[in-house]
Amino acid sequence: MRPVQAHKIRATREERAAEPRSLLVVHATELLSLRGPPGPRRHEAAGELGIVEDGALYAEGERIVDVGATAEVLGRHPRASVTIDATGQTVLPGFVDAHTHSVFAGTREHEVDWKAKGMGYREIAARGGGILHTVRATRDAREEDLVRTAAERLRSMLAFGTTTIEVKSGYGLRTADELKILRVAAEAGRTSGVDVVRTFLGAHAIPPEFEGQVDAYVDLVGGEMVDAVATARLASYCDVFVDDGYFSAEQGKRILGRAKAAGLATKVHADELADSGGAALAADLGAASADHLLHSSPEGIDALARTAVVGVLLPAASLVSHLPFADGRRLIAAGVAVALGTDFNPNCWSESTQLTIALACHHNGLLPSEAVVAATINSAHAIGLGDQVGSLEPGKLADLVILGVPSYRHLGYRIGGNAARVVIKRGAVQVGGPLR
């Protein structure tokens, strides 16, 4: 079948009926395979992209079969039911967003006025904004409405090239509402065509009915809530917001210890507002990730570097909350595997991993190559899917994005906009025009 340009994908009805679904992407100016040893990339591997010039990929069904130079791949697989010519374009794994809170009701656009007047994170929360504002709206929302709005957000993220997304709860802060959010996350993923990994974050804030009773709420989260989530198999991870004014490292350890005993892996919102011992806690627990890391101490960072914990940076959150940016250069130099997330939430309404990559280059000190690694294979490892997504290798899911730029360096260069021309999820084109 004659290849066509990436924005003109074609497959005849006869071809589709005659053979199982297969896909060829050919003549990519740069194909970023991200091939490498197992595990998250750190040290000298933190920026290794496995670039194939004039690259090609062949997939059958949902899985990648072959990756290499176009002449070689075409020699082994001369035709497919869909062929895409990526001449002049960059092909790379679908982005993996390692940290979002994308199931919620309501909006908080009024807080932009408060930020412009110099109000900080804690002051906005004290005025009735912040997390608890969203909790009130989300508790009142119907489950079907939450599914609809969450699926719309996930589809928008898919259009920017993100094919796998972590979604946290945390806007319910009651057992029934936390379970509702986790159910919604799963259904929104199915509806939108995006793979979703769910994280239970009952310890996101102290709900108003437990004001002055933090330890009682910690017991509820680590007891009834964890048991309900684990019994219903509604999440893979448990997370705690370990920070000044929220939960202490000791309280986080209590909750996460009970979660581990119930079969949930662990994550930590660590040191966003102050050095609260979150990084050290994540290292001590062997958590999957420690996220934010704006104020982590040198000792906390060095503790992370001695473990397999992935450090997830969230530059858009720093941008919108007028907070410092995590020192990505310090983390990489120490040997921490660095990943990226949008931190999509009602305070940080960002659906674009492309923007996250650019911010990481300009404000976290990551090289463009390191930011791409962070947004693909390392983010995949941060959510337990490093053996399935995050690189273009035989056997992995055929999740990829074709960018209308000649080099990956444009991801660190362009602020805003959307370079994604075609987005493929599990071997099927999801964005870029219908198949005919």
Question: What's the short version?
Answer:
This protein is 37% helix and 22% strand.
Number of spatially distinct domains: 2
* Helix amount: 25-40%
Enumerate the spans where pLDDT stays under 50 for 5 or more consecutive residues.
Answer: 1-18
What is the residue-averaged pLDDT? 93
CATH architecture of the largest domain: Alpha-Beta Barrel
What name is given to the CATH topology of the largest domain? Answer: TIM Barrel
What share of residues are in beta strands?
Answer: 15-25%
CATH superfamily of the largest domain: Metal-dependent hydrolases
- How many helical elements? 17
Radius of gyration, in Å, reads: 21 Å
Q: Main beta sheet: strand number and arrangement?
A: 9 strands, mixed
> What top-tier CATH class of the largest domain fits best?
Alpha Beta
Gross morphology: globular
Please, could you describe this protein's structure?
The structure is a single chain. With 436 residues, the chain is α/β, with parallel strands linked by helices. It folds into two domains: 4-92 and 391-431, Urease, subunit C, domain 1 (Roll); 96-382, Metal-dependent hydrolases (TIM Barrel). Helix content is 37%, strand content 22%. The protein has 17 helices and 17 strands. The chain has helices spanning 13-18, 70-76, 111-116, 121-126, 130-140, 143-159, 175-192, 214-232, 249-261, 278-285, 298-305, 315-321, 328-334, 353-363, 368-375, 377-382, 410-413, and strands at residues 4-5, 22-32, 51-60, 63-69, 82-85, 90-93, 95-97, 162-168, 195-203, 237-242, 265-270, 289-292, 310-313, 337-340, 400-403, 420-425, 428-431. Strands 1, 2, 3, 4, 5, 6, 15, 16 and 17 form a nine-stranded mixed sheet that branches. A hairpin with a 2-residue loop joins strand 16 (420-425) and strand 17 (428-431). Helix 8 (214-232) runs parallel beside helix 9 (249-261) and helix 10 (278-285) packs parallel to helix 11 (298-305). The radius of gyration is 21 Å and the shape is globular. The two termini are 14 Å apart. The model is unreliable at 1-18 (pLDDT under 50).
